[in-house]
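Task: sequence design from structure.
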């Protein structure tokens, strides 16, 4: 099953080594699909369409106080395993980490 593990908050330089070690472990186990750290949210735009008209605002306004800082895509046996991985990410200690199943275009979980 594939999961998106969304990391909310800000990653700090001192956590880089721990993150790299975890990503290396997930690569070796075959569970890592990919992931990225996102750029500073200063360049973010939020788009909402209301009444057929796009409303565009500068900034990350997803309805949460935390900002999406990055993500990891994993392919593992269960949501319990994906949650275990999420708990080991450095962002879990200072922000929040969301685990969400990925669906294919037909709406079936992958």
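Answer:
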């Amino acid at each position: 099953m594939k999961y998106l593990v969304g990391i909310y908050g800000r990653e700090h330089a001192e956590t880089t080594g721990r993150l790299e070690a975890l990503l290396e472990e997930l690569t070796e186990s075959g569970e890592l699909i990919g992931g990225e750290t996102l750029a500073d949210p200063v360049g973010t735009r939020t788009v909402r369409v209301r009444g057929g008209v796009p409303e565009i605002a500068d900034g990350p306004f997803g309805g949460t106080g935390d900002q999406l800082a990055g993500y990891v895509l994993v392919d593992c046996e269960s949501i319990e395993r994906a949650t275990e991985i999420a708990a080991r990410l450095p962002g879990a200690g200072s922000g929040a980490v969301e685990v969400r199943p990925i669906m294919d275009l037909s709406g079936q979980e992958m």
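The radius of gyration is 16 Å.
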